[in-house]
Amino acid sequence: AGVTVILPIINENSHLSTDVWITFVQRFLFVVVLMLPFEIRDLQYDDLKLATIPQKIGVKQTKFLGIILLMVFFFFEYFKDEISPYNLLSILIISLSAMIIITFSKKNQGKYYTAFWVEALPIVWLFMMLFFD
């Protein structure tokens, strides 16, 4: 989140506005959410000493946490000073896609489910932003 939001703003000698900080928090939440399917998948291989999120609260609650974080991620867009309908649409689509992926995440899933679908989400988001722009 810092590398993709804060550093480019600092590099441009721009002001760290409220919108920048909201985008930073959104990006951080999105990365955390994308981490959850990997944590669920690796649950069977992780040592109990790691105390991962699914180990601590369970798979079902981890999925619920991911969905809540995605809703926060989406609704933070409404707190920005400048709301773009195209950006809002792309965030809605990517949030719903991530919700679907999290819902279907399971302990005994194929390694390509997570490796392909979860890692493809940021690329799909980029293409949507480029298309809508």
Write the layout of secondary structure elements.
Layout: H1 2-11, H2 18-41, H3 53-57, H4 59-75, H5 85-103, H6 111-132
Helix pairs in contact: 1-2, 2-4, 2-6, 4-5, 5-6
Description:
There is one protein chain. It contains 6 helices and no strands. With 133 residues, it is mostly helical. It is globular and about 45 Å long. The mean pLDDT is 91. Helix 1 (2-11) runs antiparallel to helix 2 (18-41).
Spell the H/E element sequence: HHHHHH
Task: Tell me, briefly, the overall form.
Answer: globular
Radius of gyration: 16 Å
Count of extended strands: 0
Q: Identify low-pLDDT runs.
A: none
Number of helices: 6
- Approximately how much helix is present in the residues? over 70%
Spatial gap, N to C terminus:
22 Å
Give the strand content.
Answer: under 5%
Determine the mean pLDDT. Answer: 91
| Main sheet attributes: strand count, strand direction, barrel closure | none
Global structural class: mainly alpha
